[in-house]
Structure formats: structure tokens, C-alpha cells
Amino acid sequence: MIPEMPRGSPPRSLADPALSDDPAAGGLARRLGAWDLMLLAAGGAIGGGIFLTPATIARQLPDPRWILAAWVTGGVLTIAGGLVYAELAAMFPEAGGTYAYLREAYGPCAAFLYGWIGCFVIETGSMAAVAVGLAEYVGAFLPKIGAHTAAFRIGAFSVSTGQAVAIAAVALLSVTHYRGVREGVRIQGAFTSVILVAMVALSIGGLARGHSIPFAPAARIPIGAFGGAMIAVLWSFYGWNEALTASGEVRNPRKNIPLGLLVAVALVTLLYVGVNVAFLRTMTVAELAGAARPAQLASLRLFGAGATLLISGAIVAMAIGCTSSSVVPAPRIAFAMARDRFLPEALGTVHPRFRTPAFAIVVQAVWTALLCVSGRYDQLYTFATFAVILAYAAAGWAIFVFRRKRPDADRPYRCWGYPIVPLLFVGSSLAVAVATIRAQPRETLAGIAIMLAGLPVYFWMRRRKAASS
Length: 469
Hints:
Order of helices and strands: HHHHHEEHHHHHHHHHHHHH
Shape: globular
Strand order of the largest sheet: 1-2
Structural class: mainly alpha
Number of domains: 1
Low-confidence stretches: 1-10
Number of helices: 18
């Protein structure tokens, strides 16, 4: 049981039992290297958005210059976020990621509210969405798998073959992470590597064999249209920071966390821009705006029909890798909250052999499976959109809090371009938050209500902790 860290306390030491690699201390095992963290961060970001949002963006920005400008801008802002998070993660190389930074910067209440909605809505909802999406991708090869084909019935309750495949994927991938963080991440990394290679091939093919991008006289684009497109762009990038929830399992974190994270965000940026160049060199903007599967269409025109099947298989691998990377965040956040005694202690236990937050992984798998069956995962995730972006902005601002309150703290990595780079990241996050409120006012209010519903739980757990102390 870990005593409460008072607000303004120094960063935890690696001698802390929650962070230690000593089995006797009951800590998580530090078995991940920079390469593992890079693949985990890349897998969290490349979740299908890059193959879905280009059509939406092309409808809002009917000019190749503006489309590429939006993706380059998104990449620059993502790299800015990586630079900010690299400093924070190197300062606090422990389980929980954003939860830990908010706790140290703003106190336990703010961190709890993020962890509350993170564990039970954001992470599990997105994992269910990706798992069901995986089943739909598999359905392209096996037509009997889908949302409208019943697998079995229990009374009036029916489970589709698509839901059954999604639940099986969640269970199987959770087992791989249960048995060891390195084992789970290596399997995830293998699938993520497939889509990375496919994206490299598509980018190079577009540059080598595609037609020149037809640049007409530059069109005037309303600022609102560009802002709307940027929401889609940034959502295609989001997810890389969730890998930092596993910071407590990275060996030599002072070096490997910044290295793995920054390589990941730079690689994702290059690939996203490269893939969009390939799209624009193989189809007109009007064709891109109407393309349901732009990657398959681009590969068909570049390499022929056989390559389309390979790209479809790579997208299935991407979905598996993204589902696997989604297993990581919520159990680590729950683990950190339990070690801070804001969730039941069982969630903070470490498997004596596998050295993973095993019970938290099991709880997540069960809850995610229920979300897959319920069909409400996408609605939950939509509700949490505003909270996610707000947490990004708050974590970005935390770097200013720590520079002021802890000027002499050990910083293995210092954010390049401070204070301009953090301000860019925070400003862009707040801009997307405002745009989200305008676009989804009801969903935003619902998300705020879900987050605030955690307050009674927080005060109840705080009283229990005070009583036990």
C-alpha cells in the first residue's frame, strides 16, 4: 500500500515499490525498450483514422495544397506534443501516464476525474470500437462475419458474429498482455510493423509511380473549414501518448522514453503525410472525397488488383495491433489509481510471476466485452471526446507548472523549444476542444456529466483512505 503523495511533493523515486523492478517490492517489471515503446505509441496512433478521415478532409478542403497543409500542421502539432510529453514522462517514469502528470501538477482530484473517465469510458470504449472495427475488416475476407449475422441467441438477446469475433480478439490479446508486458507488446508490435511497411510502400509508390498532383490556382478556404478539417486530422494522430501509461515498465526510462516517443511521433507524421501524397497522386480531390476506402483504391491504381488484397490484409493487421495496444492504458491507469488508494486495492496488485497488473487487465477485458455486445461503445467514446482533449491541454500546461514549482527537479529530458512548443500544443488542444463544443454540444455536456459523476466516488474513497490512515 502506497502512502498518498501530497500535492507539490517531489517526483517519485525508482526505489518506490510501485516503480521498482524488484519482485519483492511488488512493482511492475521494467522489460520494455525504446523500440517497444515506439511500436506501442505508433500502434496507438494508427488506428484506422488515416484510412477513414481523408475523404472527410477532402470534402472540407477541395484543394490539394490545403489538404497537405492540414496534415503537415497536424504532424507539427503532434511532434510538439511528443516533445512536451517526453519531458513529463522522463520526470515521472511510472504507470498511469497522463494520470500521474495531472496528479503531480494539479492534485489528486483532477487526476481522479481523468482516471475515472479514462478507465471506464475513453480507453475501454475506444478498445471496443477498434475490436468491432477489426471484426468488420475480417468480414471483408469472411462474409459470414458481420454485425447483421447472428452467432447465437439467449432468449431475446442476440450476439452477432462480428461481436463474437470482437470479444474473442479482446480476450486473446488481453491474455498476451496478462502473461507479460514484453510478450504482449512484441505481439502488438509485429502486427503494427505490417501496417507500417504497407504505409511506407504506399508512400514510396505514390512518389515513384503516381501522377503529379494537379495544382489549380489556390482556392480560398474559409477558416472554419480548415478548423473542421484539423479536428479530423488531429484525431487521426491522437493515441500516441497512451503508450506512456506503461512508463513504469520501460527499462532505463530516462533515455528510452523520450527516444521511443519522439521517434514514434516523427514516424507517424512522415507516414501520414506520405500516404496522403500517394492518395493525391492517384486520384483527384473529388475522387478522394467520395472514396470509402482510399488506401485500397490508391494501391489498385499503383500496383494492381493483387496489391489491394495485401493492403486489406495490412489493415486487418493494423486493427489487431491497435486493439492490442488498447489493452495497455486502462489497466495501468487503474493500477496507479489503486496504488494511490482511489480504486479497490485488487486493481493495484501485480502478478507474482508475470509482473503485470493482471487483475486490472481481466477487469478491463470483461468490461470491454460487455461494451462490444451493448453496441454503446461509440456513443460513450463520443461523450468522452471533450474530456480527452481537455486532459491533453492540462497535461501540456503541466510543464509550465513544474518549471515554476519544481525548477530544480531532475529533468532527464528538457522540452526543445520551450515555451513556444508547449504553448503550440496547449493552444491547438484548446482550439480543438472549443470546436468540439460547437460541433457536439449535447455530447460534450454528457461527457462532462459522466466525468463529474466521479466526484462522489472520489470523496468517498478519500474518506476511506483518511480513515484507514
